[in-house]
Please model this.
Amino acid sequence: MDLIQRISSNFTESANLKLEVMDHLSAPIAAAAERMLECLMDDGKILSCGNGGSAADSQHFAAELLNRFEMERPGLAAFSLTSDPSTLTSIANDYDYSQVFSKQVLALGRPKDLLLAISTSGNSRSVLEAVSAAHALKMGVIALTGRSGGELAEILWPEDIHICVASNSTARIQEVHILALHCLCDAIDCLLLGVD
Model:
């Protein structure tokens, strides 16, 4: 096996997919950024969740908003529901893992808040339950998925925003997800600070 060639192929596949989905994803990413800024300016907050690599993306996004991205600005109200092991494990132990995010959404969420739900397959039970909990509270949802969007695409409300990466490779989907999240952070900063 030629590792250099394999690594080069990974770079090429990642770059090509990003270029292939750019036109399709730019509008929903822009709409999501506008919705997120509207939420934040109305004293709302953004709750995010996901499992595995998507949990890391959820935490990454919350950190970029709460602290800063590339421009100096006050912190923005964002919180990852994946960050507290005591809460996650107590819910999973006392109830069921599928409720680890939904119980937090029901306790912390308010109608003017947003949920950023991340699932590469769109079929993660805990993320689906979180979306249902957000809808029960009349919260808006931004969904970040891959493949065809899975069950998550089917339960979104018309006013929710779906950013779906049309690929079957989990690794490639996650690579586009992190770019989409960085685009959201950049767009929010530009809208907030009036950057052209």
In short: Residues 3-193 form a domain with the Rossmann fold fold (CATH 3.40.50.10490). The CA atoms of residues 53 and 96 lie 21 Å apart. The longest strand covers residues 140-146. The first helix runs from residue 3 to 41.
